[in-house]
Structures are given as C-alpha cells and as structure tokens.
Amino acid sequence: MRKYNTWTILLIIIVVVIIAPHLLKFVFSAVFVLIVVAFILFILKKYGNENGYNKMDRMFMSGEVKATDLHNKYDFTFSSVILDCAELVTPLQNKNMKVDVTFSKCVIKINPNVPALIRIDSSFANVTLPNNTRITFGEQSYEAAGYKRGLPYFYIKVDVAFSDVKIIENTN
Q: N or C: which end of the chain has fewer CB within 10 A?
C-alpha cells in the first residue's frame, strides 16, 4: 500500500475544495440549459403547425371528453381525463386521430366493434392495452376486434410521455 504524506493529502483536499464548486456550477448550469431547451421544444411542438389537425388542448383538466368527428387531435397535459371514443361510428373512409398525453392520467374508451388500429408510442410511461399488454418504452400496435384489413377504420396514434394511460373496450 502506498503511503502519502500530509502535504500531499492537504494539497488534494485544497484542490478539491477550490475546483468542486466551479465544477458543480457547470454541471448545474448544463442541466438547467438542457431543461430550458427541452421546455422550448415542447412548446414549439405543442403550438406549432399541426399539419391540418383540428385539435383540442386540455391542460390541468379533470373529467371526461367525448371524441367527435369535429376534432381529430387531443392534447392532455397535467390532466386526469377519460377520452370516450366508444360512441364513434364506423367510418366510411379511413380517419386519423391523434392523442398526446403528457404528465397525465388518461383512460381511452374504444368500442371493440368499431374498426380501429391503435398505434402507441410510449416513453417513461405506463400504457395498458385491452389485452393486458403493458408498455413503458417503445412502440406497440393494437387492433380492435372490428378491424379488418382493407376496410375503412380509425387510425389512432397515441403518444404518451411521463403518463399513465389505460385503453379499455366499452360497448356502451
């Protein structure tokens, strides 16, 4: 075992005490800058051009929202909400719907008899599908019982981040 004299240990302690606060300030500054950039990107994504989506934003909401043909994009942020898609009727042509859930708890009700293909993109989330599949990270697809390839259907894209989402089948 190597022996260090008192002056070497004292010099190491002085260097650590002098350099550590500057190093920690840099690390905290870098983390702060990353958080600010992430927030700005979130705002730009949320309020930027949505490529023709007719959207409904809900922030700090609690309650139930019925999906209609009037809206094809739903944003839920810091909310606890039920999105009821069970009353949608079989479309005459393919229809797209997008649901963004961020820092929220959301239940999405679907009618299993209405043709729907649901695509989930999840990050740091807990998503439960009707077949009890659970997703935390990554992408997963789910086909409702009424979905038949080649026939008109609803394509529902669900983006989930830092949230809890449960998709349930409800025939009303």
A: N
| Alpha-carbon torsion (67, 113, 171, 80), positive or negative | negative
Whether the predicted model's global pTM rises above the 0.85 cut: no
Q: Which two tokens stand for residue 95?
A: 């229809």
Is 121 exposed, middle or buried (CB count within 10 Å of its CB: 0-12, 13-18, 19+)?
middle
Provide the token pair at 45: 């994504």
Domain extent at residue 9? 1-48
Please state, in angstroms and rounded to a whole number, the distance separating the CA atoms of residues 104 and 112: 24
Helix then strand then coil, % of the chain, to nearest 5: 25, 40, 35
The residues near 18 (Cβ < 8 Å, ≥ 6 apart) are none
Q: How many domains does the chain have?
A: 2
> What is the per-residue pLDDT across 36-93, written as a single tens digit (0 to 9) for each?
777 766 665 555 544 555 566 667 778 888 888 777 889 898 889 999 998 888 889 9
Distance of CA 41 to the CA centre of its chain: 14
Backbone phi and psi for residue 11, each to the nearest 5 degrees, phi listed first: -65, -40
Q: Is the same domain home to 87 and 107?
A: yes
Interior angle at CA 123, CA 57 and CA 143, nearest 5: 80
